[in-house]
Amino acid sequence: MGSTHQSLQNSRTPSSSLLKKPPGAEATPERETKTLAMEKMDATTAAAASLPQLRPHKTRELLMAAPKVARVQQQQSVFQSMWIGATAGMGGIIAVYPVDVVKTRMQNSRVASSAVQTLTTIFRNEGVGSFYKGLGPQLCGTIPDKAVSLATREFVKSFFDKPNEFKASLTSAAVSGVMQSIVMNPVEVVKVRMQLDSTLKPLGVIRELGLQGLYRGYSACLARDVMFASTYFTLYDMAKTQLGVQDGTSLGWSMVAASTAGIPAAFLSTPLDLLKTRMQSRDATVHGFMNTYRQVTAQGGVGALFSGWGPRVSRIAPQFGIVLVS
Fold this sequence. Notes:
Pfam families: Mito_carr. Keywords: Calcium, Membrane, Mitochondrion, Mitochondrion inner membrane, Repeat, Transmembrane, Transmembrane helix, Transport. One of its GO terms (molecular function) is transmembrane transporter activity. It is a multi-pass membrane protein. It contains 15 helices and no strands. By secondary structure, it is mainly α. Helix 4 packs across helix 7.
């Protein structure tokens, strides 16, 4: 009986070998963490696989297109600056053009007279309309003038590591003056002749002179433009740095910077501007730069070379201030 009872107990007790879990089946915290991490990695991989993939050649095309887009944006900015500068330049010219007419009459006169006397004489004898003779050709030349000036200066400055330093400003301005004189000398000839004779028409002047005649006085125009541009833009960059002025800021500060640079530039280039006017006028009795210089100094001394400096200087600040604030 004892053996029978023991066997019954053994039959009711589960075998430890049958209930024993396989090795590593225990659920530990470390194993659960690893399992969750693997599930997250699988989900991330699946999500990434579902996104559209860029082909290698598409990626290369995008990288190659980036510089082209930058160049297009830069060109658009340059053209926009040219257009704005030309438009503002027209406004500045219209605002001070009567002063320019007075200056030209004073420079061509063999008798010394003040700006007020010259203005009064023009008004009494020829009327208000004479103060705007030659304005049309001048406005027509504004767009190419501003385009050449801006494009040349920016192009030359691109060769310098520091485009705003003195050497870069001086060189770019001088080269700009050369290019401007080539473009603007024909305009200057037509304008000067119409300012001195209110009965002349632009086409009449062009027919009378021909292409070669439109470059009369070019040596003086070249010297004037190079001197003015070199002095003006170099001093303007310096004044802008000292005053903390940026292009497009207030009209007041732009006019201060323009005056700081423009007054000495206009005054120093006045003798060359006077020689240009004499050489381009219809009643010129001598030809050539040095012959004209000798004639002027013989008649009125060295001081005669600065005739008309007042109107020339006084129109610089408002004209260039309007242009530079745009």
